[in-house]
Amino acid sequence: MNRKTGLILVIILIVAALAAVIIITGQNSLREDTGGAATLPAVEVRSYQGQDLSSINDFHENSIKGPQYINITDYRLTVTGLTNTTLVYTYADILGKYPHYTKVVTLHCVEGWDATILWEGVQVRDLIRDAGVRPGANTIVFTAYDGYTTSFPLDYIMNRDIIMAYRMNNVTLPAERGYPFELVAEDKWGYKWIKWIEKIELTDNPDYRGYWEQRGYSNSGDLNESFSGD
Q1: Range of the domain at 24
Q2: Are 21 and 130 members of one domain?
Q3: Which residue has the higher pLDDT, 9 or 119?
Q4: Model confidence over 55-113: pLDDT tens digits?
Q5: Cα 122 from Cα 161, distance rounded (Å)
Q6: What is the pLDDT of residue 228?
Q7: Residues 129 and 53 in one domain
């Protein structure tokens, strides 16, 4: 091998080595960028399938003790009462186990305002079915983190696609809206849309009265009737 050929081989080896360094460096940079990339916050949608939506900020604060700020690590949802078994779920349990559904539903408040939102959540009846319904159960009582309660006939939950929402307009529920879960109580007045749900209890007491129902509001809470009493 003459000197010229040897020089060419040396140059080729140097170029190959530099190329390898560039490739390795690029791969490492890509890996670091991918692993360390921040997740951007979800963007609120304001229309869905041609229908205009209200803003998540169009709600009035009217809860009994103000917004509740729940540590999701400690959060538990209990399904109990006249069930075959008592089930206790974490937030991740619920979102990971049950199918998710979306639907546009309007909340009508007794104060005279309303808000039309794209809700996403899980069907309450799925949780109830897994717990099992014992004979005699006819009513479901929901309890919130702040002590608020309301109730529904068992059939209302089991025979309709009633969801417990964890997202609204494509964003996770804010604390003010009931994070981690708010009940989307279709065809019911807003006081039936219980927030910060932590317990679902089956009972045999159809006359159970929740927080506002004890104060004269209709127990059925049907939109086609007055909310001032049964």
Answers
A1: 1-38
A2: no
A3: 119
A4: 999 999 999 999 999 999 999 999 999 999 999 999 999 999 999 999 999 999 999 99
A5: 9
A6: 83
A7: yes
